Amino acid sequence: MRHPLSAPETPVVTPAPLAPQACAAAVSAAVADVFTVLEDWRDRVAAAVPLTTTTELDALVETLVLPALLGEAEPAAHRDAAQHGTAQHGTAPHGTAPHGAPALLVGAGFIATADYRPGRPAHFAWWLGPLASNPLLGTTLSPTRLDLAARVHTEYLRDFRGLEWYRVPEATGRAHVTGPYVDHLCTFDFIVTLTLPVQVDGGTVGVIGADVSVTRLEQALLPVLLGLSAPAALVNAVGRVMISTEATLAAGDIVPNPGHPLTGYDRVPCPGIPFDVIVRRPPE
Amino acid sequence: MEAQLRPGAREAIFAQLIEAGRAEQVARRLTDAIILGVLTAGERLPSEQELARRFGVALITVREGLVILRETGLVETRRGRGGGSFVIQADAPDETLLHTRLRGVAHVELSDLAVYFSTIIEGCAERAALRAAPQDADRLSEWLAQADWDRDAGARANAGGFYLELAVLSQSARLVREQVRLQAEFGPLLLLGLADPSMRASVAACNTDVVAAIRSGDGPHARTLVAGQVRELAEWLHAAKTRIERGGTLHAASAVSA
Predict the structure, then answer these.
(1) What is the CATH number that goes with domain A20-214?
(2) Closest Cα to residue B102, out of B244, B201, B255?
(3) Of A59, A103, B20, B170, which residue is 20 to 30 A from A221 by alpha carbon distance?
């Protein structure tokens, strides 16, 4: 079986049909890879936080996220995989992902809570990868810092607390997956946002996170979905479609819907993440 | 209400421009934002370099655009540390400038822009109704409940913000991008009618109905509702331009600007 991060140019269908559970596991593994990277960043930021000024914090976060946004990172997942193996995912060892595998991330960074600097607003250390035809930034060829200080004002800073990707990990102290959704703040892309709270001495000092482009996720995972013997789709907890090999289901659609009743599909949860693989049942 | 200004609506001011007459376009985009209260008195514009990057034009083009704004008396440039270009227009839309702006755009251009704007937002609304999860309808409903329609600038920001939320719920990145660009180009003019309290009440009521249509998954009804709203706003604009061309005032005698 192929690694989920195999190059997209040559999607090769696995000869023997893949079990839906193996497909779901491959999805989880791809997301877990990103979370492993985020955990590494979280630990480094948490270790630095007590003594760090925001300038030093920005420099640290930039050092961490820029290689990942440029697709140059050797993710921590690869190092770990070399040590532990990933047989439980049913995939090849992560270390074998070919050079040039698509970088999943279109944005990443750290948002410090207002408490980080008493009396000051929350602090954004967030970078966007190279963007195509962004209505605010045009086309950028190198990473851009999300410059909220110069552009957006206190009402926005109050506002972002209501956003799921920040609010949930801050409130629950746990990792969270938001989306897929069209982000209208910076990337203007259909994305999934993965976030982790950063805690120091039991208190949350901020949220570390990454925006994953659904386009790139599809490039990585389409071969796995094509390996199933029936049309299938990757959906989130509310049934929002991300990737589909079912011609009548488009990315962004919601299932179940009148044309796609619950009874028509087997629903297989992806372990550890709020995503399911739905696979069309054979006709009775 | 300041607090209701959506980052998307604000950021759209600086979205990329099309080809011809770019300095004039820079000036027009910023003029619209200032005379319609999206940018407020005392606010500092982004640096010239930042504006050039954001608009996708040369630095010299931005400088030419800012010269036009200075000559119009909308911004002043202060030198030194903490310097930059600052908005000096008062908060209330300036009638004379609005008259000039409306005279400068033909009826045929206004109606074409309204057709295009309507087509995009109708598509957004219909898709949003077909694709919204119940949680999405709840969030949109909460968003709308917090929107203040009592005052002019707040109502414009909320109306524009609501269009953007509809585009987001369509789940189409292209529709969101197009809506942002279109709102930057035409939003301030189209939403001019919100200076009229009865128009504000009408748009607020319509948006409540749009949320209900989205909640019930009724795409065609959502489409019809937003089409009616855009038509109403466009007709107001037509009537206002006609009044001005006849030497009258922006607002009909019966309407009281807040």
Answers:
(1) 3.30.450
(2) B244
(3) B170
